[in-house]
């Protein structure tokens, strides 16, 4: 495997694949914090040049973290279709990029080669793609999933209704949910982050959302984003859950910090299939985000783009209904400013889609990061163009429980109009029945939550 | 992202609820004189955005009910699919206040008033502080010299204040929380060391200070990451015999200290009580029985 190049009269010699992968990343404060990033732009491009000429088999035969050492590596490696891999293993990363961007290559071709790609190969090609490359390639891939209803079709933009409340007050959650529905938001999921990770309150919130769904005959699915073990207990106690949620990391150690491992996910998977309220077959909701492995000191010196891709490698084993990268939540020590958040959002969406995952993005920021609401407007528009399956809907983008800003109910409604996208078909029919939407546009009645009271 | 809250946060929320219930049940007059002019204005603003903008709601009475049920910005109405101008501007001003707080400075006069000795961490500048949390955990060489030469070592209680992620939090709360903490320590007959202000501190800078001064217990009052509801929220992290290598679960925390959260006066008294229990039980964090 070549690790050396000469660029502008200077020789760049890298130690190994791990170093090349890290230094080929666009600038991220998290890679700098880990002490593995390129020293300057030239060294960064030198690493990209070398990476572009490596083959897929170079990537596979130089594991950054071996399957014997790490169960996420094992899950990724076991999921590879060996026949398809052997057809493409001599491709360079540059050839892979050009294949994905070729005008004669579309959804079905990409879906086929995806089965032969490891998460590290997908991360590698991401590092030599521009923002617009990432948008164009991702836009070719259509990933539809079904829980209670189908989402993800071309031309569809769904929204998660996220009606959180700082004290898990059920009336308050319901009020914010009514507001969401009145703007046509909630087709991806009605998903609440609980303040208190306790079985009873999780059960109460699941029952409440189910009650609203049943009363108004809403074709969507519910979820409470507690720890997987809490949800399992709630489900065993009879809580009506359409799917099960968990945050995941790209290494076994990272998952340990989240209090999970493959066995636990398998157990939860079996439970939701037996005792969940939805037909599926897609019954999981995963969340990820660059930097979480470093934050848990579980990164093994691997860069945050590659680790993020490995999250998707783990997620694809479970055929989730939705996957969401919470791109701006983690803080400036991992993604410093708007430029880094924008890049990460586009990378994550592309890498997820390359794993054939139903990708959504929480386009968001905290108050100590250099970003504002205009930046969220921009990134959500870019992701809309890239065919993102769903984004997050929070009242006026301000989550009064998690103390960060995301995208609003208004924003999703606006993106649909500007980009000529529609809610999921079953949900749009329901919106028409309720008099909230007509021919894909909000009616005069839209925006009035009291219609549900 | 792990949005689930850890056990400390859980305890906080429970405490927050208790505090709220206490506030609710307290006679109104008692609270009034704590409310400054500035905060009354804020409250009026708060009320202003809490009015519905829906022109013809289907159920008029329902509007008040939903607005009162949540601090979320709902019943805001729209211009086409976009928010109304004032609703949009309100979000922007709240964000501006939160950002100001991250980049703000603690008032020097305030620190002089309470004779705080000033030291700094290795944070260098604001940008580096945000990018490198590890640097905010280490005291500079100069700071170490100050600790060794000018501060009381092996105190029973070491009090530390730091700007953290919100200078506003210190400016807004220190005048209430610090004297009430001193009163509470005096009542409990506990002796304090030299009061310290750390610029550019992260929570774990208490470990480095603990290593050098070796107090029995240490409390750091530090600005929290600002939210839009308030940029003045402060946390108190407490630890029995803090030193390098301590794990997070060894710290006891009271968060959400601000005038509409846990009241700063009550927090000061409460911290004193907890520190006393730490000294009695010779432990802190998850092992401490409160």
Automatic annotation (TrEMBL), chain A:
Name under which the protein is recorded: Ethanolamine ammonia-lyase large subunit
Positions contributing to substrate binding: 160-162, 193, 287, 362
Keywords linked to the UniProt accession: Bacterial microcompartment, Cobalamin, Cobalt, Lyase
GO (cellular component) term, any one: cytosol
Catalytic activity: ethanolamine = acetaldehyde + NH4(+)
UniProt EC number: 4.3.1.7
Function: Catalyzes the deamination of various vicinal amino-alcohols to oxo compounds. Allows this organism to utilize ethanolamine as the sole source of nitrogen and carbon in the presence of vitamin B12.
Cofactor(s) the record lists: adenosylcob(III)alamin
Keyword Lyase: yes
One GO biological process term: ethanolamine catabolic process
UniProtKB/TrEMBL annotation, chain B:
Protein name per its UniProtKB record: Ethanolamine ammonia-lyase small subunit
Compartments, as annotated in UniProt: Bacterial microcompartment
Main location: other
Biological role stated in the UniProt entry: Catalyzes the deamination of various vicinal amino-alcohols to oxo compounds. Allows this organism to utilize ethanolamine as the sole source of nitrogen and carbon in the presence of external vitamin B12.
Cofactor(s) in the UniProt record: adenosylcob(III)alamin
EC number: 4.3.1.7
Residues given in the record as adenosylcob(III)alamin binding sites: 203, 224
The protein's annotated pathway: Amine and polyamine degradation; ethanolamine degradation
GO BP terms in the entry: amino acid metabolic process; ethanolamine catabolic process
One GO term describing the cellular component: ethanolamine ammonia-lyase complex
Family membership: Belongs to the EutC family.
Entry keyword set: Bacterial microcompartment, Cobalamin, Cobalt, Lyase
A Gene Ontology molecular function term of the record: cobalamin binding
Subunit structure: The basic unit is a heterodimer which dimerizes to form tetramers. The heterotetramers trimerize; 6 large subunits form a core ring with 6 small subunits projecting outwards.
HAMAP family (UniProt xref): EutC
Catalytic activity annotation: ethanolamine = acetaldehyde + NH4(+)
Organism this protein belongs to: Aquibacillus halophilus
Encoding gene (name): eutC
Keyword Lyase (UniProt): yes
Xref: Pfam families: EutC
Cofactor binding, note field: Binds between the large and small subunits.
EC class name: lyase
């Amino acid at each position: 495997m070549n690790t050396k190049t000469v660029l502008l009269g200077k020789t760049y010699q890298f130690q190994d694949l791990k170093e090349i992968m890290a230094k080929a990343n666009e600038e991220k404060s998290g890679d700098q914090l880990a002490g593995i990033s390129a020293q300057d732009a030239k060294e960064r491009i030198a690493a990209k040049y070398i990476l572009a000429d490596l083959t897929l088999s170079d990537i596979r035969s130089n594991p950054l973290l071996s399957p014997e050492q790490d169960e996420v590596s094992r899950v990724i490696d076991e999921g590879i279709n060996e026949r398809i891999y052997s057809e493409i293993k001599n491709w360079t990363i540059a050839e892979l990029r050009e294949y994905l961007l070729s005008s004669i290559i579309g959804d079905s071709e990409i879906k086929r080669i995806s089965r032969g790609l490891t998460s590290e190969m997908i991360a590698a090609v991401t590092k030599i793609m521009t923002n617009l490359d990432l948008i164009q390639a991702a836009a070719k891939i259509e990933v539809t999933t079904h829980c209670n209803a189908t989402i993800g079709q071309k031309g569809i933009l769904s929204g998660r209704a996220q009606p959180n409340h700082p004290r898990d007050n059920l009336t308050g959650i319901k009020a914010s949910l009514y507001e969401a529905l009145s703007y046509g938001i909630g087709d991806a999921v009605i998903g609440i982050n609980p303040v208190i990770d306790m079985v009873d309150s999780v059960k109460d919130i699941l029952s409440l959302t189910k009650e609203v769904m049943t009363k108004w005959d809403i074709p969507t699915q519910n979820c409470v984003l507690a720890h997987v073990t809490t949800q399992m207990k709630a489900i065993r106690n009879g809580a009506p859950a359409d799917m099960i949620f968990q945050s995941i990391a790209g290494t076994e150690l990272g998952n340990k910090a989240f209090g999970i491992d493959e066995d636990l996910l398998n157990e939860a998977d079996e439970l939701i299939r037996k005792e969940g309220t939805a037909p599926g077959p897609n019954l999981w909701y995963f969340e990820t985000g660059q930097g979480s492995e470093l934050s848990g000191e579980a990164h093994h010196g691997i860069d945050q783009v590659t680790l993020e891709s490995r999250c998707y490698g783990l997620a694809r084993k479970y055929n989730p209904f939705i996957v969401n990268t919470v791109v701006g939540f983690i803080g400036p020590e991992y993604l410093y400013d708007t430029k880094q958040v924008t890049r990460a959002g586009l990378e994550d969406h592309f890498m997820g889609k390359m794993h054939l995952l139903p990708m959504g993005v929480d386009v968001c920021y905290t108050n100590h990061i250099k970003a504002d609401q205009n930046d969220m407007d921009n990134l959500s528009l870019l992701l809309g163009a890239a065919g993102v399956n769903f984004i997050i809907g929070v009242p006026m983008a301000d989550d009064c429980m998690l103390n960060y800003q995301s995208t609003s109910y208004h924003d999703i409604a606006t993106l649909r109009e500007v980009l000529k996208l529609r809610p999921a078909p079953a949900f749009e029919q329901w919106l028409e029945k309720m008099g909230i939407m007509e021919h894909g546009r909000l009616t005069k009645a839209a925006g009035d939550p009291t219609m549900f009271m | 992202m792990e949005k689930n809250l850890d056990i400390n946060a859980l305890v906080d929320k429970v405490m927050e609820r208790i505090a709220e219930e206490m506030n609710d049940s307290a006679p109104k007059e008692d609270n009034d004189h704590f409310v400054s002019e500035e905060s009354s204005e804020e409250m009026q603003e708060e009320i202003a955005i809490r009015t519905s903008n829906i022109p013809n709601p289907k159920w008029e009475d329902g509007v008040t009910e939903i607005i009162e049920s949540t601090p979320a910005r709902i019943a805001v109405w729209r211009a086409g699919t976009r928010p109304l101008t004032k609703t949009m501007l309100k979000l922007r001003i709240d964000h501006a206040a939160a950002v100001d707080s991250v980049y703000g400075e603690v008032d020097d006069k305030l620190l002089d008033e309470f004779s705080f000795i000033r030291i700094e961490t290795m944070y260098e500048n604001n940008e580096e502080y945000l990018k490198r949390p590890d640097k905010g955990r280490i005291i500079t060489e100069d700071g170490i010299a100050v600790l060794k030469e000018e501060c009381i070592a092996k105190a029973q209680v070491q009090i530390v204040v730091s700007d953290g992620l919100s200078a506003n939090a210190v400016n807004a709360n220190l005048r209430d929380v610090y004297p009430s903490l001193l009163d509470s320590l005096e009542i409990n007959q506990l002796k304090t060391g030299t009061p310290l202000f750390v610029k550019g501190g992260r929570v774990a800078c208490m470990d480095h200070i603990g290593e050098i001064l070796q107090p029995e217990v240490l409390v750091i009052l530090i600005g929290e990451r600002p939210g839009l509801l308030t940029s003045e929220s402060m946390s108190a992290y407490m630890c029995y015999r803090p030193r390098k290598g301590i794990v997070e679960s060894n710290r006891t925390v009271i968060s959400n200290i601000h005038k509409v959260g846990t009241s700063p006066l009550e927090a000061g008294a409460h911290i004193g009580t907890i520190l006393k229990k730490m000294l009695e039980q010779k432990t802190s964090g998850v092992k401490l029985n409160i």
